[in-house]
Amino acid sequence: MTDVVAAFEAAKGFMPLDEGLALHDAAKEAALLGLPLLEVGTYCGRSTILLADAARNAGTVAVTVDHHRGSEEQQPGWEYHDTSLVDPEVGLMDTLPTFRRTLHAAGLEEYVIAVVGRSPQVAKVWRQPLGLVFIDGGHTDAHASGDYEGWAPLVAEGGLLLIHDVFPDPEDGGQAPYRVYRRALDSGVFEEVSATRSLRVLRRVPGVFTA
Ligand code: SAH
Ligand code: MG
Asked: What per-residue confidence (pLDDT) applies to 208?
């Protein structure tokens, strides 16, 4: 456990420790379903470490999806840009090498399937029900709703849907993840389990089906 937290804290990324611990707790619980745990938005693997550890302990696997070219706000000239993550040959962001180093350093490579691709395209070819879906990808309405529409129907009954960067007050941040969170609750398919800073944990209510 301390190793996992140390690896998480050493990894490049945006998630603070309290949210990480809440993500880890949710992942450990969901992993008991014995189904894969899936993340949208790998970036450099900071949150992936926590899903991978939970998967390892339960004998399942973590799947993490990213095109590895960065979100809008991570592009050159934007607030969250990191110049060390640009591929000099191609001239575009490439977080895949850093992600691989993160997982290697944490000793968790064999518990993770990394999918390089666009979230809605991957969702379209994915059939397996999931114990947990963690949405932490693009923050535009198109991206957030695409992630929700693609992946929420794949959460198994009793499984968890987690959404990051949920800010009820527009003063605190963009509203797309919040709108997706509201949509999940209003559908009646998901109920809230917990909130830690901007991380929301929802459970798919057994016996209620997606429209
Ligand atoms: N979970 C990470 C942070 C993710 S940042 C952590 O805790 O550190 C958001 C990531 O989503 C970026 O790496 C970006 O490339 C990816 N992303 C944005 N839109 C996407 C899309 N439509 N499909 C796949 N990945 C996407
Ligand atoms: Mg986030």
From this structure: 85
